[in-house]
Amino acid sequence: MENAPMVWPAIRYKDALAAIRFLGEAFGFTEAVVVPGQDEGVVEHAELRWPLGGGVMVGSTRYDEGVHGELPAGSASVYVVTDEPDALFARAAAAGAEVVAGLKDEDYGSRSFTVRDPEGNYWSFGTYRGA
Fold first, then answer.
1. β-pairing verdict for 43-49 and 55-60
2. To the nearest 5 percent, what fractions of the chain are helix, strand and coil?
3. Is 49 helix (H, G, I), strand (E, B) or coil?
4. CA distances (Å), 91 to each of 27, 114, 125, in order?
5. What is the pLDDT of residues 50-105, one digit of tens each?
6. Is there a contact between 52 and 35 (Cβ–Cβ < 8 Å)?
7. Between 106 and 64, where is the model more confident?
8. Residues ≥6 apart with Cβ < 8 Å to 77
9. How far apart are CA 57 and CA 82, in angstroms?
10. For the chain, what is the mean pLDDT?
11. What is the model's pTM?
12. CA atoms within 13 A on the CB side of 90
């Protein structure tokens, strides 16, 4: 894979399967890998790709094994670059994402917004690509 991501935010969900569906519908992430756990509805590991590059890892919160399994649901904050913030804001709002900070032009040149997914994680999207 050319320009493979080297940094992966890892987010845990109580209902990881529902989260994977929401992240695709609301934001446009696509499933690259979904590894089910031994118990029904549990996601051991999933990778979701962002159309402009990179992605996030998603899994089920289990509270009983490993460092990542102990992470509480709803505690992540992720920033994602987009070239189309207005269209993505409309898409996310239509899919039921809770608007935390509406679409606006920032002093540092980004056009961005922040929403919360159904389990409480913050997702910020903007045109700022970093320094």
1. antiparallel
2. 20, 35, 45
3. strand
4. 7, 13, 12
5. 999 999 999 988 766 666 666 777 888 999 999 999 999 999 999 999 999 999 99
6. no
7. 106
8. 121, 122, 123, 124
9. 19
10. 91
11. 0.89
12. 3
3-state class (DSSP) for residue 114:
strand
Residue 6's pLDDT is what?
81
CB atoms within 10 A of CB 80: 19
Distance between alpha carbon 34 and the CA centroid of its chain, in Å? 15
Residue 5 has pLDDT above 70, yes or no: yes
Distance CA 115, CA 122 (A): 6
Q: 91: which 2 tokens? A: 């898409």
What's the rounded Cα separation, in Å, for the pair 83 and 2? 21
Residue where the block lists tokens 């690259």: 32
Question: Amino acid letter at 102?
Answer: G
The CB-side HSE value for 123 (13 A sphere, CA atoms) comes to 28
Under a CB-based contact definition with an 8 Å cutoff, are residues 44 and 92 in contact? no
Tell me how far apart the alpha carbons of residues 6 and 8 are, in angstroms, rounded to a whole number. 7
Cα 106 from chain centroid? 22
